């Protein structure tokens, strides 16, 4: 019988500190585990990941090098490592999945070293690719799989994922044998040993700046509350975690599910955090918020995006969310002792510099008002990094601006594309130096006056020093050139959730 070859799954480095359980590829491993051999190489934990990848591939055990790639830092290893693998092991099929190849599929496949791209949840597709390679068949017809042919890009049939296959039981024990699980259960604001769990795919909303609607078309698939609790308790009893970070795009879609989860997890000594929407949470009953808090919900991340109606409209949140609602929720969550973490997206395309500066100043005033209402509210400032996407008002502005993404995959490694997706200061036809400086200066003063609670290493003395030194600037609103604060934040190794996660 022909030898069955398996898959080497690679998670390129994504974080400077605090490696998280690599759920993107671990869930792929879970989908193939009963039929094929698999191993994981985690760039967040390896000193020399390429060496490890080569060692595995030299064994001849693997027919696929599967690489997960989200925009930003991960392309820095994904691109050169995939090119090197193709050169040294041309017979190995290189498959990419995740948000970056879903957005730039053609560029990825045209590179010549990525053989196939899987769009959306990949468990079922990767299993079918493994079977096809084993049986010497073509990849044609496998749902959501794109690949290069002599005639161009072949697009497999688009198929909605089936909720049943989306949440396979994760092989924590096998991962533990490769990378001891405690390496992923690190200390943070939520607890001493935080695990990451992903309990739903997609989102029913379609914000115009977000990558999720393009992949899921407003569908949302979730596992039930009992499954979440069982998985957490499995990790807790074997490795001892005391907190969970949910990495769902929108954990709070179903109030009923959240309530059930909160009721079952309470008294189990677990703190938790998740991402949701302002309008959804505003509609939650007081009783649910009360149960959530008592069950260990410490903080909720929400895309506030803006306090201005015109921007909310552009972002696709107009009509259902308003500035007033954001302020109300900030005050409401304060009553329940849950910290709201609001992210804002600044720097959307504007018709001229005056409008851009007016909008930026208005946003800053709104954030100051928000902090007055709830000083504990965490503020995350992003700058809009566009994605290729569907037709909407925002995409129209992007297209009219003349922005063009690189044609060559390798160009994503060069400035200005290298940092484009980090949401810090993407170079776009509408980016404006004065507005960016306003944002950065305000962010520095805000971070010093209200240091994030998520930087658990920052002691009391350091916080007091930062607050004292920024007091006058914050109170007077004179934020220009805050060099003294920048230096101090750097010396204190201040950790920004915008860069490192939450
Ligand atoms: C955990 C996480 C991180 C971690 C790193 C994780 C890691 N890999 O080590 C941290 C916190 C470091 C991080 C950082 C960033 N992140 Co992030 N991150 C996530 C998050 C919350 C969860 C990822 C996950 O585990 N999902 C669970 C798995 C099961 O789902 P999945 O990843 O989609 O995988 C499935 C499919 O995509 C597919 N698939 C994925 N990979 C592969 C590979 C192969 C071979 C195949 C066949 C299939 C396949 O199959 C999988 C199983 O079904 C996602 C949101 C989300 N819910 O996915 C954002 C997300 C991926 N991040 C995003 C972004 C933009 C970033 C940043 C670049 C920017 C920012 N400021 O947030 C930063 C970079 C920061 C930096 N250091 O520079 C965006 C990407 C959106 C986009 N623009 O396309 C997302 C979608 C959040 C969002 N809604 O905006 N992130
Ligand atoms: S609510 Fe969040 S995840 Fe859903 S579409 Fe909007 S930004 Fe994306």
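^ Assign residues to that structure.
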């Amino acid at each position: 019988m022909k030898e069955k070859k398996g898959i080497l799954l690679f998670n390129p480095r994504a974080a400077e500190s605090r490696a998280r359980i690599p759920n993107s590829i671990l869930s792929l491993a879970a989908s193939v585990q009963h039929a094929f051999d698999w191993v994981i190489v985690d760039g967040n934990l390896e000193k020399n990941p390429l060496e490890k990848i080569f060692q595995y591939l030299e064994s001849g055990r693997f027919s696929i090098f599967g690489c997960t790639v989200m925009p930003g830092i991960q392309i820095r290893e994904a691109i050169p490592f995939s090119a090197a693998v193709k050169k040294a092991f041309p017979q190995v099929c290189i498959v990419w999945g995740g948000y970056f190849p879903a957005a730039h599929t053609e560029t990825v496949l045209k590179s010549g070293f990525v053989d196939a791209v899987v769009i959306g949840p990949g468990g079922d597709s990767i299993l079918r690719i493994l079977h096809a390679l084993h049986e010497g068949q073509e990849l044609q017809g496998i749902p959501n799989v794109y690949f290069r042919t002599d005639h161009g890009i072949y697009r497999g049939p688009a198929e909605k994922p089936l909720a049943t296959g989306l949440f396979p039981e994760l092989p924590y024990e096998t991962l533990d044998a490769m990378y001891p699980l405690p390496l992923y259960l690190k200390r943070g604001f939520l607890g001493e040993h935080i695990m990451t769990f992903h309990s739903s795919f997609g989102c029913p909303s379609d914000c115009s700046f977000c990558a999720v609607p393009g992949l899921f078309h407003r569908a949302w698939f979730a596992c039930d509350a009992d499954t979440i609790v069982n998985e957490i308790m499995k990790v807790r009893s074997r490795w001892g975690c005391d907190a969970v970070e949910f990495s769902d795009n929108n954990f709070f879609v179903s109030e009923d599910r959240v309530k059930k989860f909160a009721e079952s997890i309470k008294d189990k000594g677990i703190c938790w955090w998740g991402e949701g929407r302002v309008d959804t949470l505003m509609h939650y009953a007081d009783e649910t918020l009360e149960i959530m808090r008592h069950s260990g919900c410490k903080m909720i991340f929400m895309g506030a995006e803006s306090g201005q109606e015109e921007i909310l409209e552009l972002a696709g949140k107009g009509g259902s969310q308003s500035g007033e609602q954001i302020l109300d929720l900030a005050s409401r969550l304060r009553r329940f002792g849950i910290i709201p973490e609001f992210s804002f997206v600044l720097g959307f395309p504007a018709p001229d510099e005056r409008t851009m500066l007016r909008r930026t100043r208005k946003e800053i005033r709104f954030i100051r008002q928000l902090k007055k209402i709830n000083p504990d509210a965490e503020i995350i400032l992003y700058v809009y990094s566009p994605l290729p996407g569907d037709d909407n008002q925002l995409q129209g502005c992007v297209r009219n601006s003349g922005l063009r993404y690189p044609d060559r995959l390798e160009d994503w490694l060069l400035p200005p594309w290298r940092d484009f997706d980090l949401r810090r200061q993407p170079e776009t036809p509408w980016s404006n130096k004065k507005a960016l400086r306003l944002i950065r200066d305000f962010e520095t003063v805000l971070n010093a006056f209200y240091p994030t609670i998520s930087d658990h290493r920052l002691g009391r003395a350091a916080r007091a020093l930062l607050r004292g030194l920024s007091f006058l600037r914050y109170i007077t609103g004179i934020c220009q050139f805050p060099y003294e604060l920048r230096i101090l934040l750097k010396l204190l190794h201040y950790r920004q959730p915008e860069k490192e996660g939450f």
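The two ends are 49 Å apart (CA to CA).
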